[in-house]
Amino acid sequence: MTDRKFAVTARNVFDGDSLRKDCTVIVENGQVAAVVPGREHPAGIQLLELPDNEWLAPGFIDVQVNGGGDVLFNDNPTPEGIKAIVAAHRRFGTTAMLPTLITDQDSTMRYARDAIEQAMRSEPGVLGIHFEGPFISPEKPGVHDPDLIRPPDFFHRDLVTGLQSAATVVTLAPEVLPDGFMQALKAGGVRMALGHSMATYDETKVAIAGGVTGFTHLFNAMRPLSAREPGPAGAALETPGCWYGLIVDGFHVLPAMLRLALCGKGSPMLVTDAMPCVGGKKPDFMLQGRKIQTRDGRCTTEDGTLAGSAIDMASAIRNCIKLLGMPLQSALRLASLTPAEFLGIGDRLGRIAPGYRADLVAFQPDDVRVTATWVAGQPASHSA
Questions:
Q1: Where are the domains of the chain?
Q2: Which of 273, 296, 312, 347 is labelled catalytic?
Q3: How does the average pLDDT of the chain come out, rounded?
Q4: Which of 41, 137, 254, 310 has its CA 20 to 30 A from that of 270?
């Protein structure tokens, strides 16, 4: 189906806010033109009828994707590498993403930025870039190479604010930054996320006042929540207008803590922190000279340190239902509308509504098995 105007009808359409029964979504020139009851649609356009057991929902948006399809973004910061990662995750319903570069050399950061700029010309599923580091705490490196962690300078300011018409997220530890750096990023339109940080509660509140709106994989690689020092997690949970990524793979954060996060005043969103094994054929890969192995759904170094995840977005949604008892509609919202709002594009992505880009996913709700996706109205089938 390659028509510039077509329609998709489904028994269940989750529009990003609520579930609608027996609706038809009309797509024109890559955008949703209308959502109408029943099978109403203009004469002469192609109509695709989803099986009764499939839902239609907004495509998933992942703001933290290190790799996929046996490609690590750090190792292949090229338009071709990005294309392979995008294709791997699209099979699991992710129709938009931020390829994520973990702490690396300045040259690699520049290559990654330039590759994103080129990729966005032909890949509408690429929304921008996420620099996870290198401006993080050496006390909370996680799997990042400690030798590459460093404070920023003016070169870095210009580097991460240099993308035009793209979403740029920078994960940073505010307690290690020089004066004025956060203000410069905010002025450059960068979205700042606290992560890999030993910031205290008070330091985190100051950072939020200074422009931090995100928290990278909440609870992981940050000062822990405790009775007399709430740390970043405590500040995030009590602050409206903040978004925090949750890795719902059953390993990074236990269900009890995830349920706590869902009770906060901030806005939780699903992220994968995915590594090359997602959508790939090789369970093991190299990360900056270290072997990472995938066993029983966990990506770890040889000493057992978690190294990203082996989860896709459809699996994260399924885990929300099975591990947390979350309604399907709520889990879908955490994978679509909430990350869109974090990126400031909730007025054009994350919903099925007139004027929104036609990023859609068809799936079977029992196991969240994706059967088809559309990105800006362009279809792909993913049936097994």
A1: 5-58+351-381, 60-342
A2: 273
A3: 95
A4: 137
Q: Which CATH architecture has domain 5-58+351-381?
A: Roll (2.30)
Q: Which two tokens stand for residue 106?
A: 């300045």
Hey, is 4 helix, strand or coil? coil
How many angstroms separate the CA atoms of 39 and 265, rounded?
40
Q: Which CATH class is domain 60-342?
A: alpha beta
What residues contact residue 303 under an 8 Å CB cut-off, 6+ apart? none
Determine the 3-state secondary structure of 196 from DSSP: coil
Pairing assessment for the beta strands 267-270 and 285-287 based on DSSP bridges: unpaired
The pLDDT of residue 170 is above 80: yes
- 132 — phi, psi (to 5°)? -95, 85
**Residue that has been written with the tokens 């097994």 in this structure:** 384
CA distance 83 to 366: 30
103-153 pLDDT, tens digit per residue, is 999 999 999 999 999 999 999 999 999 999 999 999 999 999 999 999 998
Is position 273 annotated as part of the catalytic site?
Answer: yes
Q: Which residue has the tokens 């910061």?
A: 77
Residue 2: pLDDT band (50, 70, 90) is very low
DSSP run (H or E) holding 337: helix 337-342
